[in-house]
Write a structure and sequence with these properties.
Strand order of the largest sheet: 2-1-6-7-8
Radius of gyration: 17 Å
Number of domains: 1
Order of helices and strands: HEHEEEEHHEHEHEH
CATH class: Alpha Beta
Amino acid sequence: MSPVTYRTFADRRGAGRQLADHLGHRDWSDPVVLGLARGGVPVAAEVARELGAPLDVAVSRKIGAPDHPEFGVGAVTADGPPFYDDSTLRMLRLRPYDMQRVCDAERAEARRRVRHYQRGREPVAVRGRDVLVVDDGLATGVTAKAALRAVRQAEPSRLVFAAPVCAPQSAAMLQTEADEVVCVAKPEDFRAVGLWYDDFSQTTDEEVVSLLEAAWT
């Protein structure tokens, strides 16, 4: 068996171009591309450019376990109910009620980011349109799931999740939330999204704002 080769993508913009190649030949009905902030926005910008579609932002915040904030037990958006991974809650002997304080704090941060990114602009209307929610990769899927549920409430015609690299189990899990999940790569030995990038430096709020303003103008 040949050794696994990581670093498939140079950076998020390059990954976005590869993802755009997968999506550009498809038939879309009045599409809208939503980049999942923050890292999904540079990827989404390339997809939106290829499709000739408006670009907007989706914000979903991970709800971290008590004393282990990096370990996500769920996620929440600026609006709509939080999503929790029931099996993780059971494993940690937690209830949604136990996470209320963290959930409220993350929702407040999601709302702050939406205000910061939108800069007073109204969000792009998605009702009755094909909507592509784009991220830089899919690991556990908790933030993507919360984002998809929030977008679904706005009644898109078709809801698609797309990312350059996806953990196979998480991609399968999202099939219950999205009408389709599109991945450039679904490695069976998936470990972490960043392993598939040469440059996976953090996307800043300023970069998100710049990309959105460039698309809007």
